[in-house]
Design brief:
The chain is 38% helix and 10% strand. The protein is of the alpha/beta class. The protein has a domain of 234 residues: Metal-dependent hydrolases (TIM Barrel). The protein has an 8-stranded parallel sheet with strand order 3-4-5-6-7-8-9-10. A two-stranded antiparallel sheet has the order 1-2. Helix 10 links the parallel strand 9 and strand 10. The chain binds zinc ion. The site of zinc ion (ZN) has 5 residues, from loops. Zinc ion (ZN) binds next to loops.
Length: 395
Amino acid sequence: MSSSQSLEPARAVDNVRAADTTHAADTTHAADTANAADNVRVQRKPGHVDRSRAIKTPHPVDDSEPARPSRTIPIVQTVLGLLDPSDLGVCYGHEHLLGAPPLDVSDNPDFVLDDEEAAADELLRFRRAGGSTVVEMSTADYGRDAAGLRRLSRRTGVHVICATGYNKDVFSARIVEGASVDVLANRFTAEILEGIDDTGIRAGLVKASSTLDQISPLAARVFRAAAAAHHRTGAPISTHTEAGTMALEQARLLAAEGVDLRHLIIGHMDRKLDREYHLDVVSTGCFVGFDQISKTKYYTDIQRAETIACLVDRGFGRQILLGGDLARRSYWPGYGFTDAPGLEYILRHFVGLLRDVGLSAGQTDDLLVNNPARAFAFRVDGGDVLASQPRRQLG
Ligand SMILES: [Zn+2]
């Protein structure tokens, strides 16, 4: 980012408000909405999939014209179909429910999340605590189980968004080595528009991952393919950073590929709680994930809450997402670890810490409800995702 592209912290909110106002005043908006309402019914509950709202792939004019869905209102894509972003409710931005690393990378049984009963138990605890949506970040190279996620969503009533794209090099290199950017982009695009394998389940975002202090040439290939898939589908991009490093480089790479960084979520930023660094990152316009909550081996949750409060004070409260990234059996009561944090932890404990450091109820709603509704919405062609600003209060 050049410094001229950076938003001053104090101006960030004003710019967003200005965008909202501009769009609200846009007379085409009402027509778009009315038109969309005619043609489109929105899935309200998991288990009830409205196929009439499926993304339609238009016939490309020619091969140089990438296929792209045409939409006029914001949507998110869950394992059960499309959803109005305002129906996401309380949403964790980076979790794992089913999946495991390949055995030749790790044979640690703690990483093996393979028990749907345990996952269902965990999701029901999350739901009882007020949760509504989980973004499941396991990719194909990490044992993603789209059909299992669909069963879990139907069974528990929790919305689940699943990912295309890839995890970091140690998992993805064997796949990415033999594939061009174009091949990868086609694969990601197909998983968003057509479905994963033969399940018909479509991914709701693209994942790309860097390693400690570098974006390797292979990882850069995945980032460029993620950008291409984003341009073709409008799906948001969500990243893995190793220990919070390389966030600005990720943003620069994707900006150079033409990605509007309001559709980028940079993950694991609470592995590096340096406030100046965080301010530089959010100034690019992206979302940042505080998604290691409860993992005191990195930082205490008070330190996380205080950093969030600092960003909120500086006007960036609308660019933060929360999550736990609980990708070990030993993090889940559902696997019999009774003192483990589990999916309830953020709602039952961390929200209290946020209030202790001065966030209002509305500001915590932003982190859990309103920000995910924008972050996980597909780009709206000819419009602005920010214009849809849902404003829900937590019950
Ligand atoms: Zn993860």
